[in-house]
Amino acid sequence: MNPTRIAAGAVGLLLLTGCAADSSADDSDLTVAAAFYPLQFVAERVGGDGVSVVALAQPGVEPHDLELSPSAVRSLANTDLVLYLSDFQPAVDDALTSADVASLDAATVVELHEAGHHHEDDDHGDERDEHEEEGDDHDHGDHDPHFWLDPTLLAQFATAVGDQFAQLDPANAQTYTANAQQLVSDLTALHESFAEGLAQCERREIIVSHEAYGYLAERYDLHQEGIAGIDPDSEPSPARLMEIRDIVEHTGATTIFTETLINPAVAEAIASDAGVQTAVLDPVESVTGDDDYAVVMARNLEALRTALGCA
C-alpha cells in the first residue's frame, strides 16, 4: 500500500478523533468534515468562527489517494456534516455508505461536465480515450470533477453550503448567509479578473500535465491539451507525446504547464525537446503554507497571462 495513503489516513484519524474529544470545549457550533481542499476553503469562509472544519485530505497530499481507517470512518459520526464530491475520492464515498452523518455532495449543487476534452475536429480523441481506459486507477465516474477551477461554480457551491449550515444551526443562520454572500462576491471578483485578464491574448491553447482545466478553459474561452487525460496518474502513450510536440509547434505555444503534486519529468522533457519553457498551473486540489484558493488562483492567472501573451 502506498505509504502516503497510510499517512494521510492516520493523520485524518487523529484530526477526527481529536475534534471529537475537544468538541465540548470548542466554541464552534458545528463540526464539518471537508473531503478535500476547495471544499475546506468554502467551509472555513462560510462557517467563520462558528464552524470547526476537519480536513480529511492533508496539505500537499494528492486527494485522490486518500484512504481512511475504520476508526476514522467511525469518527465521521462525530461531525455534523461532511462536504464531499461523489466519484472523486472512493474512500470518502465508501465511508459515507456506513457513517450515520449528514452530507452535501457538490455534484448535486453544480452541473458537472463529462470527462475528457473533445471537439468535433479533434483527431486525437479516440487515441486518448483508448489510452485512458488502460490502467486507470481513479474512478471519476463519467464526469470531470474539477469544477472549482471555475470561480462561478465554486460560488454556487458556497451558496449551498451557507444554506446547509443555516439549516443545521438556525441560531447563526444570518451569519452563515452573510459569510456565503461575501464569499460569492469575492469569487465573482476573481472571475471578473480572469475574464478581463484573459480577454485579449495571442494564444488560447494551454498545454497541461493532465486534463484538469476543462471548466477553466470553457469559462474563459481557452482550449486545453493534456499530456495525460483526466487521471493524473495515467501514463501518456508515445503517440500522445508526439501529438503534444506537434501541438506545440502548430500553436506557437511558449509554455507547457506542470503541477505541484505531479512529477513534472514528462512535461519538462517535452518542453526541453520542443524548446519551450515550463510553468506551474495549479489545479488547487491541495495547498500548503500560507496559500489559499484565492492566492493560488491569482498566481494561475498571472501564469496564464504570461504563457498566452495576454495584453
Describe the structure.
By secondary structure, the protein is α/β, with parallel strands linked by helices. It has eleven helices and eight strands. The strands form two sheets. The chain has a four-stranded parallel beta sheet, sandwiched between helices. Helix 8 (214-219) links the parallel strand 5 and strand 6 (223-228).
Under the CATH scheme, which architecture of the largest domain would be assigned? 3-Layer(aba) Sandwich
Strands in their spatial order, largest beta sheet = 2-1-3-4
Overall pLDDT metric:
86
Major beta sheet summary: 4 strands, parallel
Number of strands: 8
Offer a quick outline of the entry:
This protein has 11 helices and 8 strands. The chain is α/β, with parallel strands linked by helices and 311 residues long. α6 runs antiparallel to α7, α7 (173-197) runs parallel beside α11 (293-308) and α9 (238-251) crosses α10 (265-274).
Topology, element by element:
Blueprint: H1 3-22, E1 30-34, H2 37-47, E2 51-55, H3 70-75, E3 81-84, H4 90-98, E4 103-105, H5 125-132, H6 151-168, H7 173-197, E5 205-210, H8 214-219, E6 223-228, H9 238-251, E7 255-258, H10 265-274, E8 277-280, H11 293-308
Parallel strand pairs: 1-2, 1-3, 3-4, 5-6, 5-7, 7-8
Helix pairs in contact: 2-6, 2-7, 6-7, 7-11, 9-10
Give keywords.
disordered N terminus, four-stranded parallel beta sheet, 311 residues, 12% strand, alpha/beta, 2 domains, Rossmann fold
